[in-house]
Every structure is written in C-alpha cells, then in structure tokens.
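Before our next group meeting I need something from you. Please put the record directly below this note.
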Amino acid sequence: METDVNLHQMLVVDDKANMRHLLEAAFRDKGFEVTTASNGADAIKQIKERVFDVIITDFNMPGRTGLDVLKAAKEVSADAQVIVVTAYGTIEIAVEAMRLGACDFIAKPFKLAEIELKVDKILREKNLEPLREVAAPSLPEERRMVGDSEATKQLLKMIDKIGPSRSSVLITGPSGTGKELVAKAIHEAGPRRDRPFVALNCAALASGVLESELFGHEKGSFTGAVGRRVGRFEQAHTGTLFLDEVGEIDPGIQTKLLRVLQEAEFERVGGVETIKVDVRIVAATNRDLREAIQTGQFREDFYYRLNVFSLRVEPLRQRPDDIPGLVDHFLRKFSAETNKDVSEIDDDVMGLFMRYPWPGNVRELENVLERAVVLTEGTSVRREDVPPEMWYAQDAPTVMEAKPAAVSEQAGAEDASLIERSDKFESEMIHGALQRFRWNKTKAAEHLGLKRTTLQYKIKKYGLE
C-alpha cells in the first residue's frame, strides 16, 4: 500500500473494532498515516513489511498477544516505539512489557488525551514533529459534531463560514441539542483554535457569584474574597468565551457585559484597574430572547451585540437522518469506555428510536445508549437494554416522515423533485441489495458501503420491511 512519507506512520492493533476505529480517527486528525490490524499475527506481518514511528497494541488478544507484537517489533528494530494497552492492568504485565522494551503502558479505560500525551512524548524524544492538526481542523472524536441531516449539513456550512471571523454568535435551540458542541466547532473553525476556549453556565450561578466569575475580583472586595481571582474573560484572552444559558443573566450584569463587547475592557469586582481583553463571545440560550426583551428581562442593545450571527440547532425529532450516525458514534464511545465491542442495535430497537420523539434530544439519546452498552451482554443493543418507559411511548408521533409507498409514486411524476428521485433510486438500490443477500442486513450493509445502523434506518424510512 502506498503511504504518505510526510506523515508519521502508526500501527494500531486491537481485536475490538470500536477501539481500532477510535484510535485511527483520533490520530489521523493528529497527522498520522494510520494502519490497523485486528490480531497479533496480522500486526506482525505488517511490522515486517513497513516501518512505523509508533505502534499501539492491545495486550489481550486471541492467538498472538500484544507481547508477541512487541517482541516482533523489537526484532525488526531495537528503536521500535511500542505502547501496550490492556484492560488487565496488573503490575506483572507492566513489568514484563517494559522489560521487553515497551516505551510505555496504559490501562483501559483511558482518555484519548492520555494516550495522545504519551505519543507526543515519543515523537519529541525521536526529534519528530509533535502532534498536529492536519487539513481542516477537527475536534477529537468525543467532541465532534455528528449528523447526516440537511439541517446539520447547513449548520456545519455556516460554522465554516463564520468561524474565521471574530464576531459574536448567538446559538439557539432546545436543551440537549448540543449547543456547546456547536460553540466549540466555531472556535475550532477559526484562527483562535489554539487559544483558550472557556465555558460558563450562566444559569447555574447567583448574580453576585456570576459577576465575580466573569470579571474576577480583588482581595477584600467582599466577604470571603481572601485573594485576587482572575475571571473568565481574562482566562479566555485571545480565545473564545462561551456563555451558556445567556438568557438567564441578570439585566444589571448584561449592562456590564455590553460594555465589554463594545469597548473590550472591564474592571474586576472591587478593582480600579481597567483590563483590556481580546475575546470572541459565543452565547447560547433555549429561551425566546425577543419575548424576554418585551417583558424587560433582556436588554435589546445587548441582544443585538450578541446576535451578529445567529445559529439555530433543531430538536432531534426534526432531524431523524442524524440518528443513525449518532447511534454509531455513541456505541463506539461507550464501547471504548467500558472495554466492550457493542457495534449494532436490534431492528426493533432501531424502529423504536425512529418512532420516539426524543424530548431530551441528543443528550437523552446519549444517556440511553450509555445505559444500553453497560447492560447488554452481547455485541448488539437489545430490547431489554432500553428503558421500559420508552416502549410505552410507541404511539407518540413518529420522528421521521412517513414516506414508504409514496416515495415511488411521487418520484414517478414528471415534476418530481431531485430529492424524491434520489430517494427512489436509493430505495431501489437498498431493496435490490436486500434481495440479493436474502435480507441479511449485515452483508447488504457491507455491499452498499453503509453502517448497519444506517441501513436499518433507511429500511424504516422507505418502508422496505
């Protein structure tokens, strides 16, 4: 296989597909050409054919273990840099791995940041370029926006456009839709991506405490102020300050925030020194701020200062095309955290997910899948792994538009839209693949190049059951 010699070369070895995918995605974003192997024998073959800057291998695998991979790497090159990963983090394994030449050892479950630090250390010791972002800057896997709906695609396009500016952004939408992820994506899409991103939930603090959190305070400025405190504005200098639930801020503090937005300066509570800051403000709310203006709870001038750009995050029930990708994302995330390999959900569960109205939005879906991954005993989320109350809501309005038979009829009309024609073509392709593989959904999904969760959703969408 042809490789890019300008990229660091990494080999990831793990018999769990979710762990391979997690590490592969994370380190490709960090400037690596990543090769994966699902077992020790395949890894050893790769090691004999290629030179890798870093090898990350699971310890406990069927057949050839991580120690076998380590030994093979050291036989090829005494300088091989191997990190051994295991859920069985005993002292004995660590000692044996280090004795055989492993440069480091990490126990599951681990945070991506932990292993990234270890890899960065290896690169620096080898005098190689440290971890970097490549191509379009992107967030780590657990913080990346996920979705294939038209609403999400349009949102991402807007983020790309407004990211490079320093103008304020107001994000609106119901609770649990991922407004903080949107704020982080805006930060990452601009020149401030390497500077601080500081978040503050304005609804969680009383007015006096919020003022101190925002602007800081001087020693003795109030009872309990035993020393100087640097506020969130100073912490976010040259970066981005995210004000979540901005609609809950007291009008008095809104006035002080308006001054910072206009003059880029403020004083700490109890202080006289004027502090200049360069901060981009991104705010979010689930309230109707125009209504709050009418009732005197929100300053109109402050609203217009915040609302230079406005982004709306729709509730999950209005963007069902996002559900398969979110399901796949959360299955990988929680499988990695629990050291399981849960990669599918049963058809009746997917059907439920498409019927359920998701009042808690993406946050509720995330919680449901975290619970399911913990409870399931196999590789698929089953009916009994889902909260019982969700099944009682089966008669609630369906999440997706009912299209089944109508798709073919509408798409056959001469004035059928491009979307309808595309749907008809996609429906026929999926139906043909299902017939070819005798309704084996796993094989049909592989043939079509789809994730199984996505295929399950599209079967429901087009009424192909």
Summary: The two ends are 40 Å apart (CA to CA). The longest helix spans residues 418-436. Residues 216 and 231 are 4 Å apart (CA to CA).
